[in-house]
Design a protein that fits this description.
Two copies of one chain form a homodimer.
Chain A: H1 9-27, E1 33-35, H2 42-46, E2 62-63, E3 66-67, H3 78-88, E4 95-97, H4 102-115, E5 132-137, H5 141-149, E6 153-160, E7 163-164, H6 166-172, E8 178-183, H7 197-204, E9 214-218, H8 236-242, E10 249-254, E11 266-269, H9 272-285, H10 291-300, H11 304-332, E12 339-341, E13 350-354, H12 359-368, E14 371-373, E15 390-393, H13 400-423
Parallel strand pairs in A: 1-14, 5-6, 5-8, 8-9, 9-10
Antiparallel strand pairs in A: 2-3, 4-11, 6-7, 10-11, 12-13, 13-15
Chain lengths: 425, 425
Amino acid sequence: MPRFDQMSKTELTELYADLRRKYEEAAGLGLSLNMARGKPAADQLDLSDELFSAVSTGKDCRADGMDLRNYGKLEGIEDCRTFFGEMLGAPASQVLVGGNSALNMIFDTLMRAMVFGLHSYTEPWMGQGKLKFLCPCPGYDRHFAIAEALGMELIPVEMKDDGPDMDAVEELVKDAAVKGIFCVPKYSNPTGITFSDAVVRRFAALKPAAKDFIIVWDNAYAVHDLYDEGDVLLNLLSEAEAQGRGDMVFAYTSTSKVTFPGAGVAAMAASAENIAYHKKIMGFQSIGPDKLNQLRHLRYLPDMKAVSAHMQKHAELLRPKFETVLNALDAEVAPAGIGTYTRPRGGYFISLDVMDGCASRVWKLLADIGVEMTPAGASFPYKKDPRDRNLRIAPTFPTLSELKKATDLLVLCVKLAACEKLLEV
Amino acid sequence: MPRFDQMSKTELTELYADLRRKYEEAAGLGLSLNMARGKPAADQLDLSDELFSAVSTGKDCRADGMDLRNYGKLEGIEDCRTFFGEMLGAPASQVLVGGNSALNMIFDTLMRAMVFGLHSYTEPWMGQGKLKFLCPCPGYDRHFAIAEALGMELIPVEMKDDGPDMDAVEELVKDAAVKGIFCVPKYSNPTGITFSDAVVRRFAALKPAAKDFIIVWDNAYAVHDLYDEGDVLLNLLSEAEAQGRGDMVFAYTSTSKVTFPGAGVAAMAASAENIAYHKKIMGFQSIGPDKLNQLRHLRYLPDMKAVSAHMQKHAELLRPKFETVLNALDAEVAPAGIGTYTRPRGGYFISLDVMDGCASRVWKLLADIGVEMTPAGASFPYKKDPRDRNLRIAPTFPTLSELKKATDLLVLCVKLAACEKLLEV
């Protein structure tokens, strides 16, 4: 495949006609394929089938001197706090284990900041005027949606290969109206990159003007390596604590993509002071999380070694999917000079930048023939990609054969849109 | 047992000496008894042991055209919405099924009201100045604690035998700063009374000055009858909707005291408009509740008939406990004229009014000999019982023999405190 920008107009016109013909063929097939959802496939969920029977009777439900079926233990089972403490790099005492969703814990943290103040010593965000939140992008749409719903102005920050543009971040936090930043620091959604040690250290050393600035450290893919050699993320919480700045950091993770997305266990870690303060407010909200599901998880995955062995099984199912997409892009898109993309070593997404101004067109072309992708722009604040070039590929949910078809059509449409742009059709 | 107020000073002094001696004896026993906690006992939890194996494999987890292990279904499984709709008296479409805690859903509703506004057409409570909340009392301390945490002024309203003093409620809601009222309308915590039809109709016809006034209708004991003939609660939601005032009503319930307090399923019902609006905001908070626990519950308790049969087993365990307390009070407290109390036909509590000014003293006397009761005043706003007479008895958690001992000591201390008061010791 030659570079499109080196082809003559005639060659390009012929190619375009050929691509159109293939597209019309595909349109006739009545396909229904989906590369939109960052969800585990059924075969991945089957890996955790033993979770259902991990706790089979109430006689087996004692821990921490209590009957786990009953009320209480707002902070979560102790062994579970230790477990997630290892995953998040925090002592058990600085971990709260919750329900089935880290997103829920993030939302609740920000709601508490709105109504009560982020720290015991700061004022509620509500009433402080128009606030702003930093959104490294492409990034996770559900993060941005929370800040937007809370009435914040979303400030885009460029996501680089080693993390957010820290020069920009350091500059932007001089504005006291900037109250936080969203990060998926390992196998970032959607680019799949992991923040470098240097970036993490610059986060730890951040001196925001706002005393109630929060780094939402959503470590959703903490253990989600595709290869034996996984990326290693520096521990932001301990780095920040070493600088006396631990109060900025709220870290989250869950087993949503370890066991079951709908019925996993989520946890947060923060400074001792923040944990005490947030737990106090949570005490008005809840008498305690679902400790039986926590116990089930502990029995099934007692430690990080068990998690690691379990995640290798996920990787075996996911690697061929990621490689299917990457191989097709390597063969047809990169050499044509019509797109660049990331090569994640973990996580759930591949981020594809097509030619400027072409992402919405590619999305539309695919949607019209029954291939659903995450809408172009979804990974940007206000769903607006200023260059209209980014597409998020989610290869995990379809079967391998569906994914092959979907990827072929993605490549076809990337080429089509490029031809249209170059030919000004 | 003669009435204390008809005894001579000599008789009373002799009685007091005798009671003191018995008290000192009890003090020497090193007891540790607990009537403080409204928790099911272990034998009640054992009733639901089959819940653990109600869903045993992922192959069994399809409903609503989806794999329940995966993400999604923010509103809960459809059959679960129907189930809780029956419990709350609402169509399935007006029900959201959540996680393990109705308290959590109540708190979240009020947080949404604070930050986003209670309805799509009203302003956030925050920024509206000092707000007030009506607290029928004695009532549920965790309700009052939420409103207090949110910075509201707690306005006490007298709880009568048929519900809150509606004359007072109708007068108080003329103040636009009054934003809501907490109700446990069936087998109320702690008095155990059920709101009469007349009271429910007056709630439905309420015309609060605040457009964003909420009736927090916490139907925690909807199916928790102690006897075959249970109290019947009129359906507030449909009554209010008939008056065009459905938007005021947010109803909640859970299986916390049906299956497991720590791992049950909770739900809320409201007007169609409120459900749509709150669900939209919840869409920022969560991708969906734990649907596997919902499925477990559906399999184990598929309908109200199954629930009713199950609750009869609870009743068999609880009736002897309630009757132990009531028999002792009937024998020793009522005839002595030193206390009045409720005779609940369901729920988890008995409310005891001792002589004015004696509740804290009774609590302290009991605490000193190892019998833990809910602190006097806990059922009142700011934990202050203006007459210092109310004690909440929670008979469910101790074993029957522990409860017998604790009740004997309760009666002893009620008498002691009465003697002290009458003798001015």
